[in-house]
Amino acid sequence: MKHWLIKSEPATFGIEDLAAAPHRRTGWYGVRNYQARNMLRDEMDKGDLAFFYHSSCAAPGIYGIVKVVKAGYPDPTAFERGHDDYDPASDPAVPRWFAVDVELVRPLAQPIALATLKAHARALGDLAVLRKGNRLSITPVTAEQWRRVLALA
DNA sequence: GCCAACGTTGGC
DNA sequence: GCCAACGTTGGC
User: Fold this and answer.
1) A116 CB less than 7 Å from any atom of strand C
2) What is the overall mean pLDDT for chain A?
3) Which of A27, A105, A120, A148 is 20 to 30 A from A83 (CA-CA)?
4) A18 CA to C7 C1', in Å?
5) Total number of domains in chain A
6) What DSSP string describes A43-72?
7) Binding residues for strand B (Cβ < 7 Å)
């Protein structure tokens, strides 16, 4: 089982939206970056766990834990004419963009602020979300990093 | 709003 | 293949 960190802007879709979703599940749609696409398509497996991270907000940080409940499949929004994430270059016969489904395991009673992660940067090693200029919306987390991050909650 | 970092596009 | 221009991300 692998571990990940996935980012979302709470103004668009936050941990509370996931908690309110049917079966507390959602399709992780709209990723339009090839590196992240490759992880969705090739590396994320059913059963993997991920930190749910809020970005571009007043208090960025980790707000919950989610589980991958469906491995990579073609992102349907790429084929929806008129959808914000529609990509006319994505041919259904050769899909360009992928998604997974995630389910909320639990929100963190005490979210882990980005500032807290930074304060423990040394112990967390090369945690991708702490890298300067990091913009990837999906990043891998090692088992050791996962454990150490959780210990900060 | 500012700015650094990065990805993508397109001319050559 | 190079590289400048541009758009986006995301913290502050």
Assistant:
1) no
2) 95
3) A105
4) 29
5) 1
6) I--TT-EEEEEE-SSSS-EEEEEEEEEEEE
7) A 33-35, 131-135
- Widest Cα–Cα separation across chain A: 47
pLDDT at A151 over 90: yes
Whether the predicted pLDDT of A51 surpasses 90: yes
List the CATH number of the domain containing A87: 3.10.590.10
CA angle A42, A43, A49 (to 5 degrees): 145
Domain that residue A100 falls in: 3-151
**Amino acid A82: pLDDT:** 81
| Least confident segment among A13-22, A43-52, A57-66, A81-90 | A81-90
Q: How far apart are CA A81 and CA A56, in angstroms?
A: 27
Whether the predicted pLDDT of A147 surpasses 90: yes
User: Stated in angstroms, how far is A151 CA from C8 C1'?
Assistant: 33
How far is the CA of A36 from the CAs of A26, A40, A41, A112, A136, in angstroms?
A: 17, 6, 9, 23, 7
CA geometry: angle at A67 spanning A65 and A71, to 5°? 145
- pTM for this one? 0.94
Integer CA distances (angstroms), A135 to A15, A23, A80, A128, A132, in order: 20, 29, 26, 9, 9
